[in-house]
Write a structure and sequence with these properties.
Blueprint lengths: L2 E4 L16 E5 L2 E10 L2 E2 L5 E2 L1 E10 L8 E9 L2 E3 L17 H7 L4 E13 L2 E18 L2 E10 L5 E11 L4 E8 L8 E10 L2 E4 L2 E4 L1 E3 L5 E10 L3 E10 L1 E2 L1
């Protein structure tokens, strides 16, 4: 039986939060803590301006066991946000297979649009879980069916080496939300690993045809940013909800 809960303003604050206090949610034995923010808070009302955003999320269980693995994350972003990839170099995912984080960043340096870290716990029968971690690098990827993509690269080395090259399509949609990003998370170390911490910072300035551009931009047209998220876990738990955060028009 799938368990589902709507979190309202508690979901997605890792991407768009204008307060310093973290959101904490408990669903059964699962505890999710998330926090983040974007800059600047003051934005034009009638045109787009560059922004950067960062956030983090932490997962744990009340009894200390390894959480159910996060399998899929879908994020929808407000129409007052905009993504720009015109003139930005892209990275072929094939270049990142089996690459270390340093090698990946060197091979596709011009396509980097974000970075962060991921921490994982690996379940062991009759023994405490083993920790593993990796830097995360986000690259502008090649278009897929006409839509932009992000390539997420990470690589664990303990207790075993596994390289992750995840292609994240960014679909442009009609209606209240302009973009949808879908992240399919592959099994970690044979399904025994679960993400317990994730943080990321996204933002990139670049020049194209003599103009300064920003990978992510936003406007404050109606004083509110809306973001929606859906988190699906391996035990069938689904966390689904949206958030509204105020901005200041200038």
């Amino acid at each position: 039986m799938k368990r589902q809960i709507a979190l309202g303003a508690l979901i997605c604050c890792a991407l768009f939060a204008s307060v310093s206090s973290a959101a904490l949610v408990r669903i059964g034995d699962l505890v999710l803590t998330a926090d983040g923010g974007f800059t600047p808070l003051r934005l034009p009302r009638d045109h787009f301006a560059p922004i950067d955003f960062k956030g983090h999320a932490d997962l744990r269980t009340v009894d200390g066991a390894v959480p159910a693995p996060l399998q899929k994350l879908v994020l929808d972003f407000d129409r007052d946000g905009r993504l720009s990839v015109a003139g930005l170099p892209s990275c072929d995912p094939a270049r990142l297979v089996e690459a270390t984080p340093e090698e990946a960043r060197e091979r596709c340096r011009g396509a980097i649009v974000g970075n962060g870290h991921v921490n994982v716990e690996i379940a062991r029968e009759g023994a405490p879980p083993l920790p593993a971690s990796s830097p995360i690098t986000l690259f502008n990827g090649p278009r897929l069916n006409g839509s932009p993509t992000v390539i997420l690269h990470a690589r664990t080395t303990e207790p075993a080496t596994q390289t992750f090259v995840i292609e994240i399509p960014i679909e442009k949609r009609p209606g209240q939300y302009r973009y949808r990003a879908t992240i399919e998370i592959p099994p970690i170390l044979g399904g025994r690993g679960s993400i317990v911490h994730l943080d990321a910072t996204v933002g990139r300035r670049y020049r194209y045809r003599g103009r300064q551009r920003s990978y992510v931009s936003a406007r404050c047209r109606d004083g509110v940013f809306r973001t929606r998220g859906r988190f699906t876990f391996g035990d069938g738990t689904i966390i689904d909800g949206s958030v509204e955060k105020g901005c200041q028009a200038r």
